[in-house]
Amino acid sequence: MTVIAILLAVGGRLVLRGEGLEGELFIRLFGGVFPQLIPPARSLSDAVFKVQKGAASLDRIEEVLKADLQVIEAASPAVFSFDEAIQFKDVQFSLFRIGRTGFEWGSTWRFRREKR
């Protein structure tokens, strides 16, 4: 799309100045040269888009890594042992961002003890 816009801009400028191309040269350029410019230009455009997308991902990752970690420890933690398995039911996680509402999700985890 960008290549076509550039071609239209350059061609429009030539026409407005009265410096249009002659018929045979126009056919050669438009039919032979310009179509070969489109794939490299598209690849360049895709590469720029992917770099911008990667930079945005890096910003989000850095935001998570630099966030303050707040772990609230229990005042008197329970000590326990298990023989068969241990299961955590409805474990809740909550993530909040400054100025935005957060989201929560819960899950149940079960860990079996290895038999020796």
Give an account of the 3D structure:
By secondary structure, the protein is of the alpha+beta class. The protein has a domain at 2-65. It is 51% helix and 18% strand. The chain contains two helices and two strands. The chain has a two-stranded antiparallel sheet. Strand 1 (85-95) and strand 2 (103-112) form a beta hairpin. It is rod-shaped, with a radius of gyration of 31 Å. The model has no long low-confidence stretch (mean pLDDT 78).
Brief synopsis:
The protein has 116 residues and is α+β, with helices and mostly antiparallel strands. It has helices at residues 2-17, 23-65; strands spanning 85-95, 103-112.
Specify the overall morphology. rod-shaped
Largest sheet, order of strands side by side?
1-2
**Terminal CA distance:** 66 Å
Spell the H/E element sequence: HHEE
DSSP strand tally: 2
What are the main properties of this structure?
single chain, 116 residues, alpha+beta, two-stranded antiparallel sheet, 18% strand, rod-shaped
Q: How would the blueprint of this fold be written?
A:
Layout: H1 2-17, H2 23-65, E1 85-95, E2 103-112
